[in-house]
Amino acid sequence: PLAPQVKNKAPAEVQITAEQLLREAKERELELLPPPPQQKITDVEELNDYKLRKRKTFEDNIRKNRTVISNWIKYAQWEESLKEIQRARSIYERALDVDYRNVTLWLKYAEMEMKNRQVNHARNIWDRAITTLPRVNQFWYKYTYMEEMLGNVAGSRQVFERWMEWQPEEQAWHSYINFELRYKEVDRARSIYERYILFTALVLVHPDVKNWIKYARFEEKHSYFAHARKVYERAVEFFGEEHMDEHLYVAFAKFEENQKEFERVRVIYKYALDRIPKQDAQNLFKNYTIFEKKFGDRRGIEDIIVSKRRFQYEEEVKANPHNYDAWFDYLRLVESDTDAETVREVYERAIANVPPIQEKRHWKRYIYLWINYALYEELEAKASERTRQVYQACLELLPHKKFTFAKMWLLYAQFEIRQKNLPLARRALGTSIGKCPKNKLFKGYIELELQLREFDRCRKLYEKFLEFAPENCTSWIKFAELETILGDIDRARAIYELAIGQPRLDMPEVLWKSYIDFEIEQEEYEKTRNLYRRLLQRTQHVKVWISFAQFELSAGREERLPRCRQIYEEANKAMRSCEEKEERVMLLESWRSFEDEFGTDATKERIDKLMPEKIKKRRKLQAEDGSDAGWEEYYDYIFPEDTANQPNLKLLAMAKLWKKQQQESEAAAMDPDKDIDESQT
């Protein structure tokens, strides 16, 4: 017969993958399997048949793979569940012939014997296990635990002794000791500790300090203090000076502290600190400090802390004399503890490490040594003359022809003012401006004179400042604001005129805005308009036009709306030739918001006609090496009066109309009943 031909060869809407088919088949495989029937055994013959089938299954599994121990264990556990202990024992023995190194097999075998109260059989199995695999600690733990649970303390001790002959790990010794302590056999426990320590000393199985400490604490716990002290002394002698450990001395000292032997404690700590390297004795020193805080006087505590930290800082500054952060920490330490002469000595040592390169970035941390030195002399030592000498020495050291630190001059001037020595302060600031003029120095000097209400000096300083930095708009603005506060409006206006006449300014927009705000505050609206016109001669920025229009709107007169609208008209005409179309759109948006609030329907319609149409375009991109980098989409604005783009607009409109007609014709073709109804109608 011919195979049926598939007429519709299109892909199905819902696609099914091979992975999904396999997964569903696997899931349904479990569902299709019927549950095993429940078998009810009614007589002995059926029971024997059942046993025969199960044993045959187990034997077949074992025959297939003898090395899978789990099959042996399942077989033996099944026989055990039938109370066939002899058969289960036979299976375990057969399994041991296959793999006698399997730990789980021995454990299951012994647990079966213990579970069925076959104590001698269990002992026999444990003996065989520890003889065959003596390094498996679990056998020893289980064996000793079984004997102890049976109350056979002597047998458990005998097992422990056999175990100790193998020199096991530390936990095994402690288990033996804890076993003896449970039965109050302190002497036996001590003898075990001695044997353990002897092993560590001679055989070097566990040459660790903590074993000696545990032995000593054991003696201390049972109130054998002389024995405990002897153990500590033996440990110190055993480890000697080559293998000294701070933990041993800390434990020894705490033991003596508990015995109220404070002099012994100090001797132990000092002996250890003299022989152990500083970097390895942090915990030792910490405990020594805590001990002195508890039982020593204040001076002793401070000496310990300061001496340790001073030693650390000395090592750091010796290794790197130009590590100024280490000098700062060192100076902070000596300032808090020692006398003024010692502090001055450390400061002199610190400031002697002048940076080798005359670059400001290398001096930024160094200069704070001088600042802290001067502040210490002034605030802590109360020595004004020495403070002045420190400031003067620092200012002489700085290479002012290459760079300077304005903060140093200002701090010196402020110090002289605090000493009520105004001429010296002015002389210092004048010298700084003469040697190395900086904006910060001028600002600090002017602020000082303003606080002193010396306005004539402020004017002179502003004049010098503007001669030094005529491009600094902030200085012009502050100077004009000063004159405004003093009520001299003409001087302020003249300053603004000089400022906007400068050929180079750092922030001209801020200066013009300040000048315009100044005229608005003085309610000189005509002058403000003139300022806007002068500014528009320099720049045609859209924000200037918008600000001009908003100014006319806020002028508060009757003709404010026509004036504002006129400004928008002028701005729109001026920005027709602007390449940045977004700025013109921003202007029209501002104009439309103005008309929405204050305009009529005619003006609103007019501004709507001026709004551009936003279209999407594509342009070609080029990489840095000149190769093609693809195309990118961007938005462009086409204004109504843009005659160059009128043909394109017309073509775009015709394309949209054609697309609309196509959509209508497709809709009509999809719904013929609608056409019949319309024709009948």
In short:
By secondary structure, the protein is mainly alpha-helical.
Taking all Cα atoms into account, the compactness measure Rg is: 50 Å
Give the oligomeric state: single chain
Give the overall average pLDDT. Answer: 79
Total strands: the figure is: 2
Q: Biggest sheet, open or closed, and with what strands and sense?
A: 2 strands, antiparallel
Structural class: mainly alpha
Q: Could you say what the CATH topology of the domain at 354-469 is called?
A: Serine Threonine Protein Phosphatase 5, Tetratricopeptide repeat
Strand order of the largest sheet: 1-2
Approximate strand percentage: under 5%
Terminal CA distance reads 56 Å
User: From the 3D coordinates, which CATH architecture of the domain at 354-469 would you assign?
Assistant: Alpha Horseshoe
Briefly, what CATH class of the domain at 354-469? Answer: Mainly Alpha
Unreliable stretches covering 5 or more consecutive residues: 674-681
Q: How many helical stretches?
A: 35
Give the % helix.
over 70%
CATH homologous superfamily placement of the domain at 354-469: Tetratricopeptide repeat domain
Structural topology:
Layout: H1 18-32, H2 44-64, H3 69-81, H4 85-98, H5 103-115, H6 119-132, H7 137-149, H8 153-164, H9 170-182, H10 186-203, H11 209-221, H12 225-239, H13 246-258, H14 262-275, H15 282-295, H16 298-319, H17 324-337, H18 340-351, H19 360-363, H20 367-380, H21 384-397, H22 406-418, H23 422-435, H24 439-451, H25 455-468, H26 473-485, H27 489-500, H28 508-521, H29 525-538, H30 542-553, H31 560-574, H32 581-598, H33 601-610, E1 613-622, E2 628-638, H34 646-670, H35 672-680
Antiparallel strand pairs: 1-2
Helix pairs in contact: 2-3, 3-4, 5-6, 6-7, 7-8, 8-9, 9-10, 11-12, 11-13, 12-13, 13-14, 13-15, 14-15, 16-17, 17-18, 20-21, 21-22, 22-23, 22-24, 24-25, 26-27, 26-28, 27-28, 28-29, 30-31, 30-32, 31-32, 32-33
